[in-house]
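input
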Amino acid sequence: MVAARVPLIAGNWKMNLDHLQAIAFVQKLAWTLDEAKHDTAASEVAVFPPFTDLRSVQTLVEAEKFSIAYGAQDVSTHESGAFTGEISGSFLASLACSYVLVGHSERRQFHGETNDVVGAKVRAALSFGLVPILCVGETADDLEEFGASAVPVAQVKASLAGISADAEVVIAYEPVWAIGSGKAATEEQAELVCGALRETLRENFGSEFADRTRILYGGSVKASNIAAFMRQSNIDGALVGGASLDVAEFASIVRFYKHVI
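output
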């Protein structure tokens, strides 16, 4: 990891925790990090609650001045209109969201999101001042047929096509075969793919863009393995799933720098 890129530890709650549980969780997370004297310059922490929790999280974070960022788990390609159930980027911006997840493997798998749709969501997020966290990754079948980096590289190329080199994005590499399996990629496997992704950014958007863009690893991340990932030069943080629902575990992941030598 390059020192100029502030590490980002992002917790994707998926469809867990209602708005009252979200308030209790964020309070406890903030208190836990404060008691542990978390260095906010050493790593940024962000949570991604369900849509119904976002207003509650915003109110709490702003009132208590917690050093916790937050974002949404998805965004519509549309600004407004007759799109029942969709959430516009303008709505998220009005809630002061910093980030939005785009193209998570569960959206691709269960909602049929193609690279074209994901790319439209990236552009929609950017148009409202949100930082998209673009999720990419290969399935077990992809891994066997194409190797580790081919599918994630293709997804990045397609999903970021047409954006400005001045844009701020985050890439999250999540091997689909590792998500929720309890079996993470090795740090060497993750570094190989993240390195290929950074070179793809360099080829398509230039060195400045590639050098400042954060690339996260996701897939069965926990306190016991985060340090190994964070020792790699091209890994700038983690997108955490199940472990982000345990305050103590997630707080330990956020404070990975205490374990990296």
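quick obs: The chain has a mean pLDDT of 95.
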